[in-house]
Amino acid sequence: MSGDARRPATSPEPLVILAGGGRFPVLVAEAARAAGRPVTLAGIRGEADPAIEAFDHVWIGRGHVSRLMRLARARRARDLVIVGGMKERRMPRFSEIDLVDLLVVLRHWRLLTHGEDGILRRIARLFEARGLRVVGAGEAAPGLLMPAGALGHVVPDAAARAAIAAGVDAATRHGRGDLGQGVIVVGETVVAKEGWAGTDAMLAAFAAEPKPVDAPAVLVKCPKPIQDLRLDMPAIGPETVRAAAAAGLSGIAVMAGATLVADRADLVAAADAAGLFVWGVAKEQGGTAA
User: Fold this and answer.
1) What is the signed CA dihedral for 257, 262, 268, 269, rounded to 10 degrees?
2) What is the CATH number of domain 145-288?
3) I want to staple 282 with a disulfide (CB 3.0 to 4.6 A). Which of 28, 35, 207, 289 is the partner?
């Protein structure tokens, strides 16, 4: 009898999380556990937060594909979430791969090297070829997704909404080049674009510059048009709000349903204390979501 046949029809599907750095692996695990799903985290050494040890977990190296597959089989899991930051986005070096994993990589070499997909998408193809279903953090934990409209009490005025609309257009164009997810708009003029160093570096650089006092300054983050949201969804949290406040911004706008929000209550408290809006742009309404 197959494993699926032995599992009662009402049993929640087990979930394995391949955990990089930051809060989101734990937040996804908490949401999955609250929904009744058995959850196991595979923490990448040197990347994942030790907080994953509050859950069923193992620690693995960057190139340990076979160990992750054995873990999924042992937990009878078909779904895999890949979430969390990585200090280095690269394929494993041969020195980081044991003999079994080397054979797996060589067997699927064409999948890993064909096309111009990003590193995460290539790794996801390898797992899918081995029988796992790669699902997004937002699918596994929909409560983490940004809703449309305001988080907190502050709402953008007409001038800020015009800035948001300009920022959505600019961030989308910027993302087509796979250069970054975010821009800063003052009035309706783009004054900064996110690079490989990320959103925090862009905000820190903007904080050091003189600013006009008569126009709203807004951080706008959008998924790249080429982005696989299962693997790399834009994210914000309380630290984003604090950095935006330190940079003198009026608010933050992100795409509703396509952005992860960490520690929502703390984010709202920080935004309200700073007088910043945090705005979810509805996809069908562009920069004027209500």
Assistant:
1) 180
2) 3.40.140.80
3) 289
Tens-digit pLDDT string for the chain (290 aa) = 344 444 444 468 999 999 999 999 999 999 999 999 999 999 988 889 999 999 999 998 876 777 888 999 999 999 999 999 876 555 555 455 544 444 444 444 444 444 434 666 777 787 888 789 999 999 999 999 999 999 999 999 999 999 999 999 999 998 887 778 899 999 989 999 998 888 989 999 999 887 666 789 999 999 988 778 888 889 999 999 999 999 999 999 999 999 999 999 999 999 999 999 999 999 765 544 43
Hey, where are the domains in the chain?
3-140, 145-288
Instruction: Domain 3-140: give its CATH code.
Output: 3.40.50.20
Write the single-letter amino acid at 167.
Answer: G
